[in-house]
Design brief:
With about 500 residues, the protein is mainly beta. It has 2 domains: about 290 residues, Glycosyl hydrolase domain, family 43 (Tachylectin-2, Chain A, 5 Propeller), CATH 2.115.10; about 200 residues, Jelly Rolls. Helices cover about 0% and strands about 50% of the residues. The strands form 9 sheets. Strands 25, 27, 28, 30, 35, 36, 37 and 39 form an 8-stranded antiparallel sheet that branches. A 6-stranded antiparallel sheet has the order 29-38-31-32-33-34, with no helix packed on it. Strands 15, 16, 17, 18 and 19 form a 5-stranded antiparallel sheet that branches. A hairpin with a 7-residue loop joins strand 17 and strand 18. The longest helix has 4 residues.
Length: about 500
């Protein structure tokens, strides 16, 4: 079987996986974006289709005015006794919680909170009926027994393992395989030194013996590889008996000085067991973009169309809001067949909830376009397309008013430097705004309905990279509207949005 890594491209970090029969389910982190924790389904571990989100209500996911890279950290997905459980941390609330569902596509329950600080929680359901809860705090992996109906901790909390000496031991997952308890974690920080290490014991409380070949997965010594930051893995045994690891990594374009902006993505590697009972990841503890392995028969899942004509009264699953959206800021029904955004005082520069709807950039080379109907009445009114890493690093092409004349502009924000780099008067009419990306830069253009396209400006991808902008997320491309300090006097209507890999 040949497949390409990443198996889920774009900002889909911290993958966790479980199997139910011949079906596989996977979740990832979402930080400040809403809805939270997408859930995917597959039949072959390579082709995935999103079937829902675990956190779709503000009561499950309060995100009001949280900072960038706050919110949801590192979910773990498990299946036990006919029920799915997703446990995670809302770092901005300072709490772990879990939700459950009988149907993984939802709806999911209200949160069951766990009175314990830290990050990266996990659950293990043992054969004797006990449920163990693992998490990370103070540079150590901890564990407690938990009452799964209530979230109450039972007995004392204990330290399990501090790893092999790498910084930030985190992302614990406990498994029982062939009578042994294996504790797999991440070390080295979720960056270029990231790695996966593992230890085992005959008892779920340890003591744990470290694998003599740790780390079992890392690219920290593969500086020329386009894949970097491999870590935060989870194991699954396929229905044919084979073993696999899903994990995060990021693709780094070395010819452009090693910056990455698509975020940490979901990768896959085959795994075997040596004669001493230790896991071996892809033979060498490393992976490639193109993988040739023995695997499951290919079962394609289909995908949602990349063009959205907004003809439905519900959003497609790839769309996200920034933090909890305000109901007055968007609608699919006020103008049938259009997405209506009504800009508030909030802008893309605020740690708040702007009138914004975006999807992840998943390819280095792609084109995103949207058709906009917008007649600004004040110079504070604006609406358009943005390519956004966070509130201090984003570019946009937008329509606004200057000196009583409708204009299209391109603006760059890089840290505390904000500049409109081009301004051009345009006639009234439907306006198609386009952002074209390659690995090095974004190109911004527009056309008025029935007229040729006109390129306006460019912006380097490096200034939206994790190395420059910081944080744990990846770039989104989306539609937005704002009144820049006051509500817009007219709505911005989008007839369609189209995303195409090149």
């Amino acid at each position: 079987m040949g497949f390409s890594n990443p198996i889920i491209a774009g900002f889909y970090p911290d993958p966790s996986i479980c199997r139910v029969g011949v079906d596989y389910y996977l979740v990832t982190s979402t930080f400040e974006y809403f809805p939270g924790v997408p859930i995917f389904r597959s039949r072959d571990l390579v082709h995935w289709r999103q079937i829902g989100h675990c956190l779709t209500r503000e009561s499950q996911l309060p995100l009001e005015k949280i900072g960038s890279s706050g919110g949801i950290y590192a979910p773990t997905l498990r299946y036990h006794a006919g029920r799915f459980y997703m446990v995670t941390t809302n770092i901005s609330a300072g709490k772990h919680f879990y939700v459950w569902a009988d149907d993984p596509s939802g709806p999911w329950s209200e949160p069951i909170w766990i009175a314990q600080n830290g990050i990266d929680p996990s659950l293990y359901f043992d054969e004797d009926g006990r449920t163990y809860f693992q998490w990370t705090t103070l540079g150590t992996i901890w564990q407690a027994e938990i009452e799964i109906q209530t979230g109450a901790l039972k007995g004392e909390t204990r330290e399990l393992w501090s790893g092999t000496g790498g910084r930030y031991p985190e992302a614990p997952h406990l498994y029982k395989i062939n009578g042994m308890y294996y504790l797999m974690i991440a070390e080295g920080g979720t960056e270029y030194g990231h790695m996966v290490t593992i230890a085992r014991s005959t008892d779920p409380w340890g003591p744990f013996e470290a694998c003599p070949r740790n780390p079992i997965l890392t690219h920290r010594n593969r500086g020329a590889s386009p894949i970097q930051g491999t870590g935060h893995g989870d194991l699954v045994q396929a229905h044919d008996g084979s073993w696999w690891m899903v994990f995060l990594a990021f693709r780094c374009m070395r010819q452009y000085e090693g910056y990455h902006h698509l975020g940490r993505e979901t990768f896959l590697a085959p795994m075997t067991w040596d004669e001493d009972g230790w896991p071996v990841v892809h033979g060498t503890g490393s992976v490639e973009l193109a993988m040739e392995v023995e695997g499951l028969p290919t079962v394609t899942m289909g995908s949602e169309p990349d063009r959205d004509d907004f003809d439905s009264t519900t959003l497609r699953l790839y769309w996200n809001f920034l933090r909890n959206p305000r109901a007055a800021d968007w609608s699919l029904t006020e103008r049938s067949g259009w997405l209506r955004l009504r800009g508030s005082a909030v802008t893309l520069n605020d740690s708040d909830s702007p009138a914004f709807l975006g999807r992840r950039q998943q390819h280095f080379a792609c084109t995103a376009s949207a058709c906009l109907s917008f007649l600004p009445q004040r110079e504070t009114d604006e609406a358009g397309l943005t390519v956004l890493m966070n509130e201090t690093h984003h570019y946009e092409i937008f329509v606004t008013l200057r000196d009583g004349v409708r204009c299209v502009m391109v603006r760059r924000r890089i840290g505390d430097l904000v500049a409109v780099v081009v301004q051009e008067q345009i006639v009234d009419g439907l306006t198609v705004l386009t952002i074209e990306a390659d690995a090095k830069q974004y190109t911004f253009s527009y056309r008025i309905d029935g007229m040729p396209a006109h390129t306006l400006a460019t912006g380097l991808t490096r200034y939206l990279s994790s190395e420059v902008a910081g944080g744990f997320t990846g770039v989104y491309i989306g539609m937005y509207a704002t009144g820049n300090g006051q509500a817009t006097s007219v709505p911005a209507d989008f007839d369609w949005f189209d995303y195409q890999p090149l």
